[in-house]
Specification:
By secondary structure, this protein is of the alpha+beta class. It contains 5 helices and 19 strands. The protein folds into 2 domains: 120 residues, Sandwich (Immunoglobulin-like); 139 residues, Sandwich (Immunoglobulin-like), CATH 2.60.40.420. The protein binds copper (II) ion (CU).
């Protein structure tokens, strides 16, 4: 019995030693990887601004005086620190959409909001996973994302697949009626989102007659990083097939060819196309509302309207105007991007 106990003790101390060794090895590896990684520091300065989309002026905020904010691009494993300088008249925060950030950043810092004339440095965190991600304001997001506070955050893999050209497109949607004051609820109110009537791709409003032109040479492999920061499901349809290689930053195990794709809010897809023949080919865009959503929402709005009419006297006026046109803002298919392939064999 005594022997058994001493054997047991021996095993315990061996185990302790083993865990000590593991911990030391882990700490050493971590220190080495941090020491060998590059630290990338960025500053985002927020200011009050204005943009015009389809003839409607929107009050926005901009990062570093650009809309969308500047692209942040780092390598997997880089150490990232981002200073948010608030030179605007409102409060803002910073959120890293799709990135693994350490618990200190994710739990505490993303809930740190910066008042006007203050600044705060978020991080540091190790960039990953590789892929197409986003950064955006974390304060009153429904309104602040609608008012332009977002940008692409790209983490390149150590073994990034080569492409000849790469384009990053952030899609969003806006509500001209709310911004013009023609809607009971203001810009950024969840009730207005289904009525969003303007689609943007990067800084440009999609009108059907001003597509973005992607120039390429015959045979080139083109990677498109697509992200939806808006509120509606945006559908892309192309004349030829494309390959989806990544979803939300993660490589797709069996990439397959398809000619259309619906990008729901917050989603990111990387697609690859090959410029097969000379000439112009079009990417079409539409709003792809799931079946039944429009009917459901309209029905619930109608019942609310009916009960509002019962409880309010008509002299209150506005109760009858609240949801006068609750259309879902389905936008017909329109060209957004043209692939213009020239020359080559
Ligand atoms: Cu903000």
């Amino acid at each position: 019995m005594r022997q058994k106990i001493s054997n047991f003790k021996f095993q315990i101390s061996n185990l302790k030693l083993f865990f000590c060794f593991l911990l030391t090895a882990y700490c050493l590896l971590f220190t080495v990887s941090i020491a060998s990684a590059e630290t990338k520091e960025f500053t985002l300065t927020v200011t009050d601004s204005e943009i015009e989309l389809n003839g409607t002026k929107f009050m926005v905020w901009k990062y570093n005086d650009t809309f969308p904010g500047p692209e942040i691009r780092v390598k997997e494993g880089d150490v990232v620190k981002i200073k948010l300088r608030n030179k605007s008249s409102a409060k803002h925060g910073l959120f890293f959409h799709g990135l693994y950030v350490n618990p200190r950043v994710s739990i505490q810092e993303q809930e740190i909001f910066v008042d006007p004339d203050y600044e705060y440095t978020y991080g540091e965190f190790v960039a990953g996973p590789a892929g197409t991600h986003l950064y955006h304001c974390s304060w009153n997001m429904a309104e602040h994302l609608t008012r332009g506070l977002y940008g692409a955050f790209i983490v390149e893999a150590k073994d990034e697949p080569k492409s000849d050209k790469e384009f990053v497109y952030i899609i969003s949607d806006w509500n001209s009626k709310a911004e013009n004051g023609d809607d009971h609820y203001g810009t950024g109110h969840p009730r207005t989102m289904l009525d969003n009537d303007i689609t943007t791709i990067n800084e440009r409003a999609v009108t059907g007659d001003n597509p973005i032109v992607m120039e390429a040479k015959k045979g080139e492999r083109i990677r498109m990083r697509l992200a939806n920061i808006g509120h509606l499901p945006h559908k892309i349809r192309f004349a030829q097939n494309f390959i989806i290689t990544h979803e939300d930053g993660y490589p797709i195990s069996q990439p397959k060819a398809q000619d259309s794709l619906t990008i729901y809010p917050g989603k990111r897809y990387d697609i690859v196309i090959t410029a097969k023949k000379s000439g112009k080919e079009v990417f079409y865009h539409s709003i792809d509302m799931p079946p039944g959503v429009k009917e459901k929402l309209t029905a619930s709005e109608d019942s609310q309207k009916a009960s509002a009419a019962h409880t309010h006297d008509d002299s209150h006026g506005h109760s009858n105007n609240i949801h006068k046109e609750n259309k879902t803002g389905v936008i017909k298919e329109a060209p957004i991007i043209v692939l213009d392939v020239r020359g080559g064999q």
